[in-house]
Structures are given as C-alpha cells and as structure tokens.
Amino acid sequence: MSPLTDLPTTLELQCYIGGAFVGEAIEPVTNPATGEVLGQVPWLGQAGAETAVQAAVGAFAGPWPKLPAKERSRILRRWFDLIMADRKRLARILTAEQGKPLAEALGEIDYAAGFVEFYAEECERIVGEILPGHRAYARNLVVRQPTGVVACITPWNFPAAMITRKVAPALAAGCTVVLKPAIETPLTAFALARLAHEAGIRPGVFNVLTGDAVAIGNGLYPASRGQGGQLHRFDPGRAAAGGPGSAHH
C-alpha cells in the first residue's frame, strides 16, 4: 500500500506561481521503492521560470520587504505551526516520493520546520550597526536591507529541510523567492507551498516550479532585473552571521 493511499484528494500537483496553483500536470512522480506513479506534475521551461521571476519581482516591489519585521515574523511562525500540525501527512508524502523510512521522514519534517521557526524569530533581530570611522568625528552606519529575488534549487535527498533552510531566511529578510525543487521529489515542495499560502505569505513572494532543469535555469539567472529585481543565490549561513540581506550574485 502506498503511503499516499489515505491522503486527502487535495494533494497539490501544480506549480505555485504568483499566489496561484498553475500548470498542466503531465510529468509522473514515482515511488522509488515500488515504481508506483504517485501523481503527475507540470513540466515547465524557460517561459515558466521567467513568469515566476516576474511574479517575484512584482512582489518585491510591493509591501513584503516593507512589512514590519514583527509582521513577517508572525507569518513565518504561522507557517511553522501549520507544518507541525500537518507533519504526519507531510512525512508520508516525503516517504512515498523520496524513499526514506517514515521515522526518518518525520524527523526531517521536524528539522525542516525548525528552520522556519528559527528564522521567524530572527526577523526581529535584523539590526544595523554604527561602526567607528577612521576620523574621530566620523561614524559608519550599516543598514541591512533585502536584496531582491532569491533563486533556490534544492536536491531530492532532503526535499523538505533543504527548502526551508533556503526559503525561510530569504523570506525573513524581506526577499522574495523562486524555488525549483528536484523533479524526483516535487510533492513535498508543493505541500509546503500550500501551507505557506495558508499561512498568509502574499502572492508572488514564494514561487515553486517544476520542469526542465536547464531551461528553468536559463530562465532564472539571465533574468536579473537590476535594482528592485535582482536575482540572487541565497547563503543562509551568511545570513545568520552577517545579516539576512547578504547574498551572492
């Protein structure tokens, strides 16, 4: 019996772009242990990636980066609460598409939720600094700000934890996100996107798409739009140490 057998029929099988679930589900996702087809997901390409980037650029120009830190913290905390409330179902999805034992899948969901909880609390700790200058009467003011759109690409082996490890700090900083999960394990990503949607993360702030990796990559990285829409690879370790606005081009 598949671990998905007793799941609700509302299991999400579409990409999440601009606050809506979209895309024709045509690419099969299989259980690696049995070969059973668990469902089908969209197969998007460069145009789909560019649409997702445009949604994220638009959201970055909107209220998300300007929200009080306390409000972003509240939304992320709500996402954490929803993940924990749904942890058993999420673990069954993860086991079915990735193959790790259910006990390990439950552990990963808890691990993944922990990143969301941590960065929900870090929202209100994003502070600046006043540093001594090279002259006695001078001071250097450091202000940490969100940098733009963050591109996240995650692997199949930790399909929940590697998403929240990248996405949560970016959102906490006020950035917007385009995520491409591994095509072998997209169902966990879509389930997390549904919970983010229910938590109140605004349209375009968090986008998830599946499809041709090369074509999507071509749609992501040449799509840098300059100030207000610049695309970055996010470094969560650097965010924790040096401020969540930190990113690599």
Taking strands numbered 1, 2, ... along the chain, how are they ordered across the largest sheet? 9-8-7-10-11
In whole angstroms, the N-to-C terminal distance is 45 Å
Overall 3D form: globular
- What would you call the quaternary organization? single chain
Tally of separate domains: 1
What is the element string, with H for helices and E for strands? Answer: EEEEHHHHEEEHEHEHEHE
Q: Regions with pLDDT < 50 over 5+ consecutive residues?
A: 223-229, 237-249
CATH-assigned homologous superfamily: Aldehyde Dehydrogenase, Chain A, domain 1
Mean pLDDT: 87
What is the name of the CATH topology?
A: Aldehyde Dehydrogenase, Chain A, domain 1
Please provide a written account of the structure.
The protein is of the alpha/beta class. It has one domain: Aldehyde Dehydrogenase, Chain A, domain 1 (3-Layer(aba) Sandwich), CATH 3.40.605. Helices cover 43% and strands 17% of the residues. It is built from 8 helices and 11 strands. Strands 9-8-7-10-11 form a 5-stranded mixed beta sheet, sandwiched between helices. The protein has a two-stranded antiparallel sheet with strand order 1-2. The chain has a two-stranded antiparallel ribbon with strand order 3-4. Strand 7, helix 5 and strand 8 (176-180) form a beta-alpha-beta unit. The chain is globular and about 70 Å long. The N and C termini lie far apart (45 Å). The model is unreliable at 223-229 and 237-249 (pLDDT under 50).
